[in-house]
Backbone:
């Protein structure tokens, strides 16, 4: 119903949907919020980026991020080890916060996107499309890979005068992951996905 | 803006509910309290429920915790030469005096200014909405988007503490332990993020309508 009508999610103004050139963005006429955008091959691009993000995420979590070099010894830490150290230091709430924002939420986000997009690409609508989509929306603001990346860089500088600092494999994969995830949110077209799912049903 | 206020048709004004998950419009009578989107089954509301009081509650809690977050130490360093506690500001001062002024600026903005400005901005939005103000609507809508976008960067200091604590556990040289300030600071970030999420920016524009949305 109400075909062609769209309400701004930030000011509730009703507007008629406009046809859009490829790569264009539609903004609300009243408050300027982004209503939707069109990307050529949005689904394929988002899916490709998600697959690479999953690979990068696994690498970023299984190798050390940075290490300290001291008297021939190298002390390294992985992301997961920062969480367990905080936990052991009796900072359980902070440990949980780090775990949720850098591991759990990005993992959930990537798997939810893959779960939604892969079947759609193959011409099927996955079961529980609506709830998983809702989960994705809830999870999204809590994934903070890019903030963590900046945090690692700051600590790198902070520690550099204490001992030699060695960048680990995971540092580079985190940097790449940050860029790829920014790419995913740039090409992700929620409106197009619902239209596609609606057409397939 | 050249549009006259009366010509602005909103979803709520016509009894159309906008689904916040999938963007589908559904027609509901305003009397209905519990409605679900026929396409994605998300709960539908004309406006976020109790937006103003919930946002105030979260915001006040965040403002209270902002005090210990800045006064209590984030990190405690103990070495052979004694021990030392670092608050957020002493970390900023340390970077500033040791020549890394750009890092001092980054940390100062992310950890001190962003949470403070975010709380002030939310307060401004809440007060103007409660007064049904028509002042600078477009700018206030923009301010809300900025608050939503920028809030996450305050987590920076938490991550710095996490990484440094995990690395510096060399018993011979020094140990660094997280301090209670980190807990308060993490709580401030989470609470202000929730506060921004519970605030409904559509309330900014509702003063245009005669009927209460």
Residues:
């Amino acid at each position: 119903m109400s075909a062609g009508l769209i309400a701004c999610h930030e000011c509730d103004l009703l507007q008629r949907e406009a046809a859009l050139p490829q790569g264009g963005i539609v903004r609300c006429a009243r408050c300027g919020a982004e209503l939707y955008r069109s990307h050529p091959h949005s689904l394929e691009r988002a899916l490709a980026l998600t697959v690479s993000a999953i690979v990068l995420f696994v690498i970023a979590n299984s190798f050390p991020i940075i290490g300290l070099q001291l008297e021939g010894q190298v002390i390294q830490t992985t992301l997961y080890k920062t969480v367990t150290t905080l936990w052991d230091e009796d900072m359980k709430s902070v440990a949980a916060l780090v775990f949720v924002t850098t591991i759990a939420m990005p993992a959930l986000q990537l798997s939810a996107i893959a779960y939604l997009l892969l079947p759609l690409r193959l011409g099927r609508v996955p079961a529980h499309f609506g709830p998983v989509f809702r989960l994705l929306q809830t999870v999204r603001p809590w994934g903070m890979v890019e903030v963590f990346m900046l945090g690692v860089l700051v600590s790198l500088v902070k520690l550099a005068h204490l001992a030699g600092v060695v960048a680990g494999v995971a540092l580079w994969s985190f940097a790449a992951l940050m860029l790829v995830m920014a790419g995913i949110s740039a090409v992700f077209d929620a409106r197009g996905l619902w239209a596609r799912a609606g057409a397939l049903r | 803006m050249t549009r006259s206020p009366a010509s602005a048709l909103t979803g709520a004004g016509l009894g159309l509910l906008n689904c916040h998950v999938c963007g589908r419009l559904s027609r509901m009578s305003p009397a209905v309290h519990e409605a679900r989107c026929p396409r994605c089954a998300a709960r539908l509301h004309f406006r976020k429920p109790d937006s103003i009081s919930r946002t105030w509650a979260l915001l006040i809690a965040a403002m209270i915790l902002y005090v210990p977050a800045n006064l209590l130490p984030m990190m405690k360093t103990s070495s052979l030469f004694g021990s030392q506690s670092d608050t957020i500001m002493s970390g900023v001062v340390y970077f500033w005096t040791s020549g890394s002024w750009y890092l001092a600026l980054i940390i100062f903005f992310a950890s001190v200014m962003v949470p403070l400005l975010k709380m002030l901005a939310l307060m401004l939005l809440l007060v103007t909405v409660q007064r049904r103000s028509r002042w600078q609507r477009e700018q206030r809508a923009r301010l809300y988007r900025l608050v939503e976008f920028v809030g996450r960067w305050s987590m920076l200091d938490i991550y710095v503490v996490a990484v440094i604590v995990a690395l510096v556990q060399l018993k011979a040289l020094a140990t660094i332990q997280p301090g209670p300030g980190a807990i308060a600071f993490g709580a401030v970030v989470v609470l202000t993020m929730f506060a921004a999420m519970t605030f409904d920016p559509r309330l900014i524009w509702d003063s245009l309508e005669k009927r209460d949305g």
Summary: The beta strands of chain A are 5-7, 14-16, 25-27, 34-37, 66-70, 73-77, 164-167. The radius of gyration of chain A is 21 Å.
